[in-house]
Design brief:
single chain; 371 residues; alpha+beta; two-stranded antiparallel ribbon
């Protein structure tokens, strides 16, 4: 009987938690997708790349909101069960409030393990896959970026200026700056048009001049028709993998092998060196240690069962529980930023979730040991 009624509570809480994750995740994801649209389109990527990229950002969002959604879900379900007198079924069935809290803590430990798995493997993997989409994509949205009287620098090492864009899609008075650090190359053409398909991506130019300057030597030649290859150019999007996109195994290796700080991984364009040691440690704390606050959230929410709804202190206890739990979530986020500033702050950060859990757990035990 006891197992059955708690199984119902666990099921109701889990369903509500999953639904809340999806709803809130989609809202946050939609807001970010609007920002990413400007970011991707302005760098010359097409809609296919855009949708592939934003879809792969969804696991990261879910990973970030899980502690807050767990708090809201557990808080809501405990209040809902109390309002509908369903918690009374537990107490009349012989379940003590302390044992009830232990069951909830056990659920939170399962969620903690899932959160660690998601943060250490799945979320970084999908973020890196999204970065690979940007890295491997060409400038397939380039044509629509070209506007009259505007300098276009959506690709690395290339600037294009178009004076007029004609009704038939062609261009008039085209200027291209294809200069590098060692050479200067500029092209002027009276007319041009872009051929953009799966086979080739070129800017076909007519009636113009090419100016090449290398060191002190200048070459100028005229042309009737020339093809300028656009496929050789990549976008200005940052293609180097960020620390949050790196596999956990590589970050752990970089963090502990202090004698090998010049290790370079060409696949990720990532170099392990001493200058990013603190950033790597902070990222590892976020993946493996910050989820330990989930059991702290769980035991704090259990204070809702101390007083029944007809008790005069019920509403006051509910407000205190909500505010305190919310501050714990804020503390878990804020303390992470200072976790690697010194050895002292690292020790404090490592001790905080354990001390918080033990203190709150002991207080709850003392309040419910005779109930």
């Amino acid at each position: 009987m006891k197992k059955l009624i708690f199984r119902k509570f666990a099921k109701d809480t889990s369903v509500f938690f999953i639904l809340m994750c999806l709803v809130v995740g989609i809202i946050v994801w939609t807001l970010q997708a609007v920002n990413y649209f400007d970011f991707v389109v302005q760098d010359g990527h097409g809609l296919k790349t855009y949708f592939s990229y934003i879809i792969l950002t969804f696991p990261k969002i879910i990973h970030r909101i899980i502690p807050f959604i767990f708090f809201i879900s557990l808080f809501y379900m405990l209040i809902d069960y109390e309002v509908r007198n369903e918690l009374l079924i537990f107490w009349t069935a012989g379940v003590s409030k302390f044992n009830f809290a232990n069951k909830i803590i056990f659920l939170s430990i399962i969620l903690t393990i899932l959160q660690i798995c998601m943060g250490s493997f799945f979320s970084p993997l999908t973020q890196f896959k999204g970065r690979e989409f940007l890295k491997n994509s060409n400038i397939d949205f380039f044509t629509s970026l070209i506007k009259e009287g505007k300098f276009i620098n959506a690709v690395d090492g290339l600037t294009i200026f178009i004076k007029n864009k004609n009704d038939d899609g062609s261009f008039s008075k085209v200027f291209i700056d294809d200069s590098s650090k060692s050479t200067t190359k500029m092209i002027y053409a009276k007319n041009g048009n872009i051929i953009d398909n799966d086979k080739r991506k070129i800017f076909k130019l007519f009636e113009g001049q090419v100016i090449n300057k290398e060191k002190k030597k200048i070459n100028v030649f005229e042309f009737d028709e020339i093809d300028f290859n656009l496929a050789d150019y990549s976008s200005n999007t940052i293609l180097v993998a960020k620390i949050q996109e790196m596999p956990s195994i590589k970050l752990l290796k970089c963090s502990f092998e202090f004698s090998n700080y010049n290790d370079f991984d060409s696949r990720y364009n990532f170099r392990c060196d001493n200058s990013i040691k603190n950033e790597i440690k902070e990222e590892l704390f976020k993946r493996f240690y910050k989820p330990l606050y989930i059991p702290v959230i769980a035991v704090m929410c259990c204070f809702l069962v101390i007083f029944p709804k007809n008790n005069i202190q019920y509403k006051k206890n509910r407000k205190i529980t909500f505010i305190t739990t919310f501050l714990i979530i804020v503390l878990s986020e804020a303390s992470l930023r200072y976790s690697t500033t010194s050895n002292f702050t690292t020790i404090i950060y490592l001790a905080l979730p354990w001390l918080s859990f033990m203190i709150i757990y002991l207080i709850f035990y003392n309040r419910t040991k005779n109930v």
